[in-house]
Amino acid sequence: MKKDLKVLVTGGGAPGIAGTIYALRNNPDGESVKIVTCDMRDEVVGKYLADKFYQVPSAESPDFIESIMKIALQEKVDVILPQVTQELLPLAESLPLFEAKGIKVAVSQKPSIIRANDKWLILEAAKASQVPFPKSYLTRSEAELVKSANELGYPRKKVVIKPRLSSGLRGLRILSEEIWNVKRFLEEKPDFLEIKMDELLAILRNGPWPELIVQEFLPGMEYTVDVFRGRNGAVAIPRLREEIRTGITFRARVKLWKDLENFALKIAENLDLRYAFGFQFKLSEEGVPKLLECNPRVQGTMVTAMFAGCNIIWWAVKEALGEKVVPKRPKRSADNMLFIRYWGGIAVYSNGKIYGPI
């Protein structure tokens, strides 16, 4: 390993930035790592947790790659570790440019990123890999959407609507005609995901009609599977998402469920993904885990895998550097391990003085 290794971590304002930095600094090899972060916003927590910070244009900007390259050269960065979905494709397309400068990028090849980020193509990958997935329809019009929802049992059953291309909870809705009563009104926090058919159609009629996936609603618990895949093997670490707020895991419990591990590894091979990434599964009424989507990047709560004995964030950096990484399965004692996220923060004075983090 190179002395004074420098890693540029994008998404300095991402929810999981503290965990990613923690995993790099507390790597099992005891290596000293200098961390540079960047984000399109200036005042983000990663700015104060890293050794250096830069503000960059959005991934959609034509200046994005040039900006990242400039930072990497100026800081003598060895590896770029992306955390933002929108950045993956431009970085994958620019791999030869970075490689020519001796800079490694822990991102999969362009064809893999395209398939993994496409919520329809990922279902086709699941089918080809013989991995369970929810019954789904790809729709391009109001008539197709309504017909597909009816095919899935709406309004008797809830139905999921989501864009073919999106990240986080953007565009996700649950079609439901369920009537709220006073008890539910007073006791439940609204998640704003549920919507009635007429309300959804009223929104969608106000612009160009998007490609939408109409999908079977899965009522069971949700699982994330963190995956590392490299030249010398792959490993998958499932975790139950016991508590989710605005799409972010606040309570995760490691569950060494062999079926989930195998499902994730089979799809990863089909997509030819590399480095650190993950998949989302949800249980059907029958308790069958079905694939929802893929995050072909470092995930927000991936640090959980480190505490289970698999620092896959660090492994991704080593793999990018061309070092031999032989991934090992989580330690048996990690099964049922609980990871709890909490609200923390940093106080920043106008003179630059910092208190925290807490």
From TrEMBL:
Keyword terms: ATP-binding, Nucleotide-binding
Residue ranges of domain ATP-grasp in the record: 123-321
Organism: Archaeoglobus fulgidus
Pfam families (UniProt xref): ATPgrasp_Ter (PF15632), PylC-like_N (PF21360)
Listed name of the protein: ATP-grasp domain-containing protein
GO MF, one example: ATP binding
The UniProt record lists the keyword ATP-binding: yes
Keyword Disulfide bond attached: no
PROSITE patterns, sorted: ATP_GRASP, CPSASE_2
Cofactor(s) the record lists: Mn(2+)
